[in-house]
Amino acid sequence: MGKFLKGVASIYAWLLEILAQEYETVRTLKESARGSVQLIFHRATGQRFILRRFTGNGEVYRKLLNYSCRNLPVIYEAVSQGEDNLVLEEFIEGDTLGFLLEGALFSPRETREITAQLCQALWVLHSLAAVHRDIKPENVILRGSEAVLIDFDAARFHKPQAEADTQILGTTGFAAPEQYGLGQSDTRTDIYSLGVLMNVMLTGEHPSKRLAEGRLGRVIERCTRVNPEKRYKDVVHLMGAL
Questions:
Q1: What are the average pLDDT values for consecutive 10-residue runs of the chain, which has 242 residues?
Q2: Residue 33 CA to chain centroid, in angstroms?
Q3: HEC string of the chain?
Q4: What is the pLDDT of residue 209?
Q5: How confident is the model at residue 122, as a pLDDT?
Q6: What is the pLDDT of residue 6?
Q7: pLDDT, position 165
Q8: Cβ–Cβ < 8 Å for 94, 142
Q9: Chain center to CA of 111
């Protein structure tokens, strides 16, 4: 075990060294008590990347090293030293839904198409038993016609034996009730947040204040039920409803 931990630490140090020698920071995109997100570029090639530094559990990033999906960013490196994490990932060029919603709402057709693509991203995560836990407009980037789900800092693996999450994380308004200590997050937690996101795209408001009309409104109502058992079973069933 000692040799393994030493190896992990050396990989972390190696990546820090490579970042200092071969990359340059363009700007800091986000900074908080938990860490930072920076746009960087490789000096030799000019290629841009996202560098995440955060404190917490980086196991979902490490798992995604072996997976590829057009609706998820490519994870190139993900290393940890204790609770400190370094993640080098694909830079997604586009605008967040949060930025786009400042100018206009989305049509029902656009909302269905974007949600279906986010379901594809969640299908990959959920197949790994991972829960995103922070779906919101700022964590979805539109790259042309493609929706890309980003930021897995709050993501965790579902543990069937646990009764509740060990750490309360998520964004107020988008987080499901179980994220506040009422139960353990699972794949239906993301379905709740996705329902709120859909409603915000259509109306600009939380469904508790103003529920979207028509068929999509009925889909959103089921997504955002307080009892997870009453929501769609999984993203495949949600895609069918869309």
A1: 46 90 94 91 96 91 93 95 93 96 96 98 95 95 96 79 46 81 80 97 96 97 95 95 94
A2: 19
A3: CHHHHHHHHHHHHHHHHHHHHHEEEEEEEEEECCEEEEEEEECCCCCEEEEEEEECCCHHHHHHCCCCCCCCCCEEEEEEECCEEEEEEECCCCEEHHHHCCCCCCCHHHHHHHHHHHHHHHHHHHHCCEECCCCCHHHEEEECCEEEECCCCCCEECCCCCCCCCCCCCCCCCCCHHHHCCCCCCHHHHHHHHHHHHHHHHHCCCCCCCCCCHHHHHHHHHHCCCCHHHCCCCHHHHHHHC
A4: 95
A5: 97
A6: 41
A7: 44
A8: yes
A9: 18
pLDDT at res. 173: 82
* Sign of the alpha-carbon dihedral angle for 206, 225, 72, 62: positive
All domains of the chain, ordered by start, with CATH?
2-90 (3.30.200.20), 95-241 (1.10.510.10)
Query: Residue for token digits 């993900």?
Result: 78
Task: Measure the CA–CA gap between 182 and 165, rounded to whole angstroms.
Answer: 9
Question: Token match 């839904």: residue?
Answer: 97
pLDDT at 156: 87
Q: Phi, psi at residue 27, to the nearest 5°?
A: -165, 160
Distances (CA, A) of 204 to 73, 103, 207, 215: 26, 11, 9, 17
Q: Are 81 and 9 in contact (CB under 8 A)?
A: yes
The residue from 84, 134, 186, 190 that is catalytic is 134
Confirm whether 95 is a catalytic residue. no
Cα atoms in the 13 Å half-sphere on the side-chain side of 76: 12
